[in-house]
Amino acid sequence: MKKVDEHLKKDPSNKTLKKAKKQLSEDLLPRKQKYEQQRKIAQERNSFSKTDHDATFMRMKEDHMKNGQLKPGYNVQMGTEGQFIIGYSLHQRAGDTRCFIEHLEHVNQYISLPQNIIADSGYGSEENYTYLEEQGKKAYIPYNTFDQEQKRTWKKRIERVENMEYDEEFDEFICANGQRFTFQYETKKESDHGYLSIKRRYRCDQCQGCPFQSTCAKGKTYRTITISLKNQIQRKEVKERLHSDDGKEKYRRRKIDVESVYGQIKQNQDFRRFHLRGLSKTTVEWGLVCVAHNFKKWQKIRALQQRGIK
């Protein structure tokens, strides 16, 4: 704007400069200020609600037409034990994976974390597994492809790196046709919590004429795979833990435990939306919902005990 004013002083009759000044003052600069203010409100988020600046647009699980819709909301995380809520936290990001560590650290301020942490596959990531290892906790958390791996069709998918043989001595993967994927380079990526994930890239150049070329290399003469060896080890350990008799029983109880609590609050109590706005207020509101749920659960148990029913 200053440069435009300087040029106008030298040439006051310049219509192009006058038009540019008008556009800057009435349109471009106000819009720039508006966008800067919006970025300040959103911070690291990609959206926010005009009626609740703390709320982030998220893909909701359902609506009256059984379709997922983008609506402003908060991601509620809860920990339960025997269908009692032992801790909760509200987050401004949609994905459960990145809320996991924040939730546990928040709950750990009030109670000690249990030795066994059980959650669904939405929380299974290298960073979360590593965090639990560092805390001395056992993870009973399946990863995103865990259920698929139990099917026969999965084991027949020769293009999956999980179904390839790994030669630890030479650091190479061997495909179904006996060809080797040699190491190329590794990349490092840091997460929001400062966790550094290292992924290694391997390449095979012997795909030309391979009988599996169309399915494995997608018709190309070569194929690359990018993988975290640390995460592969973690997945193997989690898989063995979940396949054990103790692991099966623990994960079976999770479905009865935490899912019942969500069902009780959403379906039976018909609590499907917050009445207050702002992260601090909605956190208090959800806290009251949790207290009410725990009190009702305790009252029901007391009533059964008084009748001599355990």
TrEMBL record:
<dbReference type="InterPro" id="IPR025668">
    <property type="entry name" value="Tnp_DDE_dom"/>
</dbReference>
<feature type="region of interest" description="Disordered">
    <location>
        <begin position="1"/>
        <end position="50"/>
    </location>
</feature>
<feature type="compositionally biased region" description="Basic and acidic residues">
    <location>
        <begin position="23"/>
        <end position="43"/>
    </location>
</feature>
<feature type="domain" description="Transposase DDE">
    <location>
        <begin position="174"/>
        <end position="297"/>
    </location>
</feature>
<feature type="compositionally biased region" description="Basic and acidic residues">
    <location>
        <begin position="1"/>
        <end position="13"/>
    </location>
</feature>
<protein>
    <recommendedName>
        <fullName>Transposase DDE domain-containing protein</fullName>
    </recommendedName>
</protein>
<dbReference type="Pfam" id="PF13751">
    <property type="entry name" value="DDE_Tnp_1_6"/>
</dbReference>
